[in-house]
Design brief:
The strands form 4 sheets. A 7-stranded mixed sheet has the order 4-10-9-8-7-5-6, with helices on both faces. Helix 5 crosses helix 17 (417-431). It contains 22 helices and 14 strands. By secondary structure, it is of the alpha/beta class. Bound molecules: pyridoxal-5'-phosphate.
């Protein structure tokens, strides 16, 4: 298939343009060229998104009159119920606590701490499943984490009722302990970092990214002209979030490919040794390729960092729980790494907006702040002195929180408290089962079975490597054609039908919507199929329809005697 949209390093510049968001320096000439390139690329990227939107319209009205199969989206089609039942039940308990204090029609008071743990025990009925879970969850916090019971339940009651500003603004005290335990259990691969990690709950993983980049650039830890390395292919919105500002930065692609099982090769990793590369941004397991970095690559990355010790690594691990024995880069390189996590996918809570930023108490951002030139320090002193007496020693983690509300409104920053309590409950659905979480297994099996059904029907080899999260898969249409129809046809199709035309035809004729691979900086001829939002049978049907369309092209090509391999 033809290259219709230039796969380009510039795609990443859009993102980089966004990175520079907050800093308030004038643009240099070179930078504005980068800016123009970035804007040009942005139009192309948005073009790719319009294409998908257009495909949805075509599919709705498809010629075959088929039911639409939209495997473009990453929004899961499952939800976690245990946490939601628990939330409802705990809200009921909390309302009882409020009405105990004062009750006049639909008005009640603020809950009181004294005796609250005892009243919780009285109210919960172990024979009811939501109650039984809440009993176990509270017991876990008290027995395994040493949290005071009255303190915990009071925090949760106030939090779920939402009658106080979040305090501390960054994260409620017990919530931070619970989230730390969750992150350690799901992502750290046995490293004990819960005690040394600072957590900032946010309105989702995407908000986390915005906050981090704003703070990095505002604090001059990233500056115009700095090189930023990006692990590609990558999540499109991260290529797209452009607060179009006055200047750009230079970006470096650190590429992974199907040939290397979507892992990063040594040569690519070596790019990070260059000290002019200031930050490295990755999604792990990746999107669209949906593969985790191997332990080997992570240990090599560690060696690379020794040569570029000031490198800031930013890892988005939203799909971490979809890989068995997952290991986050944060656990191997805690000093340099900022971790972003989101509950959106695993628990089906995309509408809640629940994510977080985690970083070590001992981190390179704080070291770099101390090493800044005096003029920058002065500038930042002025910026943060409105919210602290000791701006020089304000940790980067707190600056991220302050910057999320333009500093001045630091004291009203922080995620809504009911959202923080819901995060507690989500984390506890995992923690109470220790390392044998039945829900995580269900989610992993669900996407695995869909993947298997799809690959079997496509007649493609399954990749059962542990690193494969199977949340999405990238399918190379050219290789698929070569395998089933021969090289001549594959070449003919590549020459005569653009990838966009193919995707449009798939929508218009067969009612199938897929994502355009190069829109993620994935190779030409690839499509991303989400395994999150359709049922197993739908993936079989989807693959069959792909072959129906390819059969039609094959006839047009003049090929005879081959019908769908899946038929
Ligand atoms: C879906 C997704 C997220 C989730 O973002 P939220 O804002 O938490 O919903 C984050 N990162 C990547 C790479 C994703 O694909």
């Amino acid at each position: 298939m033809n290259k219709t949209i230039t796969k380009s390093i510039c795609a990443v510049m859009i993102f980089i343009t966004f990175l520079t968001g907050c800093a308030a320096r004038p643009a240099s000439n070179t930078a504005s060229t980068t800016q123009q390139e970035a804007e040009a690329q942005l139009e192309k990227e948005l073009g790719a998104f319009e294409i998908t939107a257009h495909q949805r319209e075509l599919a709705a009205d498809n010629e075959a009159g088929y039911r639409v199969l939209d495997a473009g989206r990453g929004n899961p089609n499952w939800i976690n119920t245990q946490s939601r039942y628990a939330f409802t039940r705990f809200m009921e308990f909390a309302l009882g606590e409020s009405e105990r204090v004062m009750k006049d029609e639909s008005m009640a008071g603020h809950a009181v701490k004294d005796g609250i743990g005892h009243r919780f025990d009285e109210a919960m009925n172990p024979a009811q499943s939501a109650d039984s879970f809440l009993i176990k969850a509270v017991d876990y916090c008290v027995s395994n984490m040493g949290i005071n019971k009255d303190d915990l339940i009071k925090e949760m009651v106030d939090g779920i009722i939402g009658d106080y500003y979040p305090s501390p603004s960054r994260c409620l005290r017990n919530t931070e302990k619970i989230l730390n335990a969750y992150l350690e259990s799901t992502l750290y691969h046995g490293e004990n970092l819960a005690g040394s990690t600072t957590v900032f709950p946010t309105e989702g993983g995407t908000a986390s990214m915005v906050y981090i980049f704003d703070a990095l650039s505002h604090n001059r830890l990233l500056n115009p002209g700095d090189k930023i390395a990006i692990a590609t292919p990558i999540f499109t919105p991260y290529l797209q979030i452009p607060s179009v500002k006055d200047y750009g930065m230079v970006s470096v692609d650190v590429t992974s490919s199907a040939e290397n099982n979507w892992d990063i090769s040594d040569d690519e990793l070596k790019k990070l040794e260059d000290k002019s590369v200031k930050a490295f941004f990755l999604v792990n397991p990746s999107n669209p390729a949906s593969h985790a970095l191997s332990a080997n690559t992570i240990s090599k990355l560690k060696t690379v960092i020794e040569k570029n010790p000031d490198l800031i690594i930013l890892t988005d691990d939203v799909y971490g729980t979809f890989v068995d024995d997952f290991q986050t880069v944060y656990s191997a390189i805690p000093h340099n790494t900022i971790l972003v996590y989101s509950f959106s996918k695993l628990y089906g809570v995309t509408g809640w907006r629940l994510g977080l930023i985690a970083m070590n108490k001992d981190n390179v951002m704080d070291d770099l702040l101390k090493k800044q030139p005096e003029d920058v320090k002065n500038y930042l002193r002025g910026e943060y002195s409105i919210v602290t007496d000791d701006p020089d020693n304000m940790p980067f983690a707190e600056r991220v929180v302050a910057d999320s509300r333009s500093i001045g409104l630091y004291h009203t920053s922080g995620l809504s408290t009911p959202s923080q309590i819901y995060m507690d409950l989500l984390a506890l659905t995992h923690l109470v089962y220790e390392n044998d979480d039945p829900y995580i297994k269900l989610a992993n099996n669900l996407v695995s079975e869909r993947y298997k059904a799809l690959m079997e029907t496509l007649g493609l080899p399954e990749d059962d490597n542990d690193a494969n999260a199977k949340y999405y898969t990238v399918v190379n249409i050219r290789s698929l054609c070569e395998k089933h129809y021969g090289k001549d046809f594959a070449d003919w199709l590549y020459k005569n039908v653009t990838e966009i035309d193919f995707l449009n035809a798939l929508a218009q004729k067969k009612g199938v919507v897929l994502m355009y691979g190069p829109g993620f900086n994935a190779p030409d001829g690839t499509v991303r199929i989400s395994l999150a939002n359709l049922n197993k049978e739908d993936y079989i049907e989807l693959a069959k329809r792909m072959f129906e369309l390819l059969d039609e092209y094959y006839n047009e090509f003049g090929g005879k005697g081959i019908s769908s391999p899946a038929a």
